Amino acid sequence: MSTARKIRVEELPVTVSPRGPRIRRVLSSDDVVVTNVILGPGQDLPVHTTPVDVFFYVRSGSGVVIVGDEEIEAASSDIVLSPKNIPHGLRAGQSEDFSVLVVKTPNPEKLN
User: Fold this and answer.
1) Long-range contacts of residues 95-98, Cβ cutoff 8 Å, at least 24 apart
2) In the structure, what pLDDT confidence band is assigned to residue 1 with cuts at 50, 70 and 90?
3) What does pTM read for this prediction?
């Protein structure tokens, strides 16, 4: 029996995060949590710190990924890495939605 699974991100329900942006919960296990953050033009995900490694995969649009003191311009297909305990956030460009997969490993909700 196969354990493969296909996830159609665009078909997942969209909710609003306590931090403000629209999000889709893509995947959650002990090892990883994946969230699709969708920022409207000019919207941001405030800078915050996570106790695990994070990477940001830009699905569409363009904007800025903030990691520590760096502001990294990122567009579709770019990946930006953020080590654990380093403040990070997102800011969309002014002209289009900025859709980013945020991958945290291990899942910070499963720590301890």
Assistant:
1) 95/41, 96/41, 96/60, 96/61, 96/62, 97/38, 97/39, 97/40, 97/41, 97/60, 97/61, 98/38, 98/39, 98/43, 98/58, 98/60, 98/61, 98/62, 98/63
2) low
3) 0.92
